[in-house]
């Protein structure tokens, strides 16, 4: 009896098994498809929790590509992205990092919050973003030519500029960019109602609250309530928490520690519910 061949799918963990629901807010789907057709790298700009990650998940599904996601942070090294030699029972073996895996096998690689990574880490992706589409794996003495289906997508929040690190011009100029903002009120209410499974009326009240908090942005508050926060608050209400308490827990307290701002936000909650 001959044994069945063992097929190993190196991207198995990065394949999505159902369609991520995404409500388009403009022409971003067509814009992304046009960039993908040319395999141009894409930079998604916008405040935290406004739908960037959900959008790229949805696009990977539409384009039938696996999505390799990396959340960037300041301890992320080039080796974490590219790969390294590791010692195991059989000796030293090379392990592709997520960027290499995506480039080798033709996935979309999504680097979330790219500015959180140090510049010496982000620089490794540069040769993948121009017409060469290569990734030098120096430790392995290999020049990897990216798979034809590979695409690089990164996200970043321009609201943090100045406070935090910035994206270097030599990095940002390699990308085409799509700008995201909070969805228009009707669309945002539909998203909250869909995601948390709540009535449209409650979703609309939460969106009204979010708009009040967003007016406080810049006046001490770094950023107003995100769509993500509204989904959390709606979920708490659905689970039985009273609306004002849910907003305190999911919106007000996560947004700030400043006592005056907390009071201003509490007043916004009371005006909304
Ligand atoms: P970001 O990556 O911008 O920080 P996410 O994509 O994680 O934000 O969005 C946070 C949540 O908001 C998502 O999990 C989803 O529930 C919801 N969301 C925001 N915008 C949309 C949208 N246009 N369609 C569907 N869900 C959305």
UniProtKB/TrEMBL annotation:
Residues 188-271 form the CbbQ/NirQ/NorQ C-terminal domain. This is Nitric oxide reductase NorQ protein. It comes from Quisquiliibacterium transsilvanicum. It comes from the Bacteria. One of its GO terms (molecular function) is ATP binding. Residues 41-175 form the ATPase dynein-related AAA domain. Belongs to the CbbQ/NirQ/NorQ/GpvN family. InterPro entries: ATPase_dyneun-rel_AAA, CbbQ/NirQ/NorQ/GpvN, CbbQ_C, P-loop_NTPase. Keywords: ATP-binding, Nucleotide-binding. Pfam families: AAA_5, CbbQ_C.
């Amino acid at each position: 009896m001959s044994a069945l061949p063992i097929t190993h799918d190196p991207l198995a963990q990065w394949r999505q098994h159902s369609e991520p629901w995404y409500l388009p807010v403009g022409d971003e789907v067509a814009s992304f498809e046009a960039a993908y057709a040319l395999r141009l790298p894409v930079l998604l700009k916008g405040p935290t929790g406004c739908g960037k990650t959900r959008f790229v998940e949805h696009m990977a599904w539409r384009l039938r590509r696996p999505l390799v996601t990396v959340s960037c942070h300041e301890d992320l090294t080039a080796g974490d992205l590219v790969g390294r030699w590791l010692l195991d029972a059989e000796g030293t073996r090379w392990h592709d990092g997520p960027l290499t895996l995506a480039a080798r096998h033709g996935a979309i690689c999504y680097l979330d919050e790219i500015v959180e990574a140090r510049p010496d880490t982000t620089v490794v992706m540069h040769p993948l973003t121009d017409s060469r589409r290569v990734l030098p794996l120096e430790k392995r003495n290999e020049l990897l030519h990216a798979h034809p289906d590979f695409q690089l997508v990164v996200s970043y929040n321009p609201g943090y500029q100045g406070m935090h690190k910035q994206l270097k011009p030599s990095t940002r100029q390699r990308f085409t960019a799509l700008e995201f903002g909070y969805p228009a009120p009707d669309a945002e209410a539909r998203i909250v109602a869909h995601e948390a499974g709540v009535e449209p009326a409650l979703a609309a009240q939460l969106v009204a609250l979010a708009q009040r908090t967003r007016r406080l942005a810049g006046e001490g508050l770094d950023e107003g309530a995100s769509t993500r926060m509204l989904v959390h608050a709606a979920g708490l209400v659905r689970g039985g928490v009273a609306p004002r308490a849910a907003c305190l827990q999911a919106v007000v307290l996560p947004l700030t520690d400043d006592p005056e701002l907390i009071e201003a936000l509490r007043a916004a909650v009371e005006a909304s519910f």
